[in-house]
Specification:
Blueprint lengths: L4 E7 L2 H10 L3 E3 L7 E7 L3 E7 H5 L17 E4 L3 H13 L3 E2 L5 E2 L3 E7 L5 E7 L9 H5 L1
Parallel strand pairs: 1-4, 5-9
Antiparallel strand pairs: 2-3, 3-4, 6-8, 7-8, 8-9
Length: about 140
């Protein structure tokens, strides 16, 4: 069985968050959804986002939930098939109530990335990379 990732995110309004993630392409898995949590499938068999009410989140950890609009602990990143797909994902997020480009756009020719914030302030980066065009050599020179 391939390894899967389940990203758990605390949300203030479960229905609003479900609608947002559906608008950017995730599919709800009702088998793992109730009035306290929703399983949103980003990539079948590999990437799932668990949207958890604050009460449900508290059943997993006693750590405080930071305000993701003012604090960041993680940046989540998913790949895209093309530069146009990167832009399309950000556009979908904005139309669904998200915020475009909370982090700088990255354009290195062989790699292109943008980002969006969900309604709770969680940042998702979307990136495209052309493996055939990746420069080789000193990593410091590649980043310059």
């Amino acid at each position: 069985m391939p390894q899967m990732i389940f990203v758990n995110l605390p949300v203030t309004d479960l229905d609003r968050s479900k609608a947002f993630y559906e608008a950017v392409g995730a599919v709800n898995n009702p088998a793992f959804t109730d009035d306290t949590a929703a399983c949103m499938v980003v990539e079948e068999g590999s990437i799932h986002v668990m949207l958890l009410s604050h009460e449900k989140w508290a059943s997993f950890t006693s750590k405080a939930i930071p305000d993701a609009h003012t604090h960041a602990q993680v940046l989540l990143c998913v790949s895209a098939d093309s530069r146009d797909d990167v832009d399309g994902q950000v556009e979908k997020a904005v139309k669904a109530g998200g915020k475009a480009d909370p982090t700088p756009t990255q354009d290195f020719g062989f790699m292109y990335g943008r980002s969006f914030e969900d309604p709770d302030g969680h940042i998702w980066e979307v990136m495209w990379m052309d493996p055939a065009a990746i420069p080789t050599g000193d990593p410091a020179e590649v980043a310059a």
